[in-house]
Amino acid sequence: MAEAKPPRTIREATVEDARAIRELYGFGDVEEFAARLADPHTAPGTTHYVAESDGETVAAFALTGLGRLRPDGRDRLMLHEIKLRPSVRGAGVAEDILAWLEEGRAVGTERELLALAPLGQRPAAFDRFGLSESHQAFKWAVVEGDRRT
Question: Which of 39, 72, 85, 101 lies 20 to 30 Å (CA to CA) from residue 30?
């Protein structure tokens, strides 16, 4: 018999999640994460979420509402900043996030989803949920000191 998957909760991130989110990123300052979570003007239109399992934060991600200009078009959401705790990779956390989006955010019926993944990576969860390539993303490099990021 297959081992039961622990129940996961997905909820909007709060300032109290700053330390756990910083751990997921592996760098940065807890106070800066907390300040960004506390200020809705940091990233207008973006909401940050965490996924928890057995009281532990196992993932963080962001959703940005993109709207739609075309008449009769569906609103779009962009899924980005997905960070998984290494110990839960391959354990269905990404699938739980996509199922939550499908059920709770009407993705696939009332809304379109654009999901960002690192260059050259195609998360298996995207295939399982039927996400297909539709766009290429490009970024404008930012100069920090003597290098571009």
Answer: 101
For 105, the token pair is 């955010």
| CB 135, CB 99: distance < 8 Å | no
Cα(50)–Cα(10) distance, integer angstroms: 6
Stated length of the chain: 149
Token pair belonging to 94: 């990404």
Measured CA to CA in angstroms, residue 71 lies from 20, 75, 114 at distances of 41, 11, 19
Residue 77's nearest CA partner among 45, 113, 108 is 113
Residue 16 has pLDDT above 90, yes or no: yes
pTM, two decimal places: 0.84
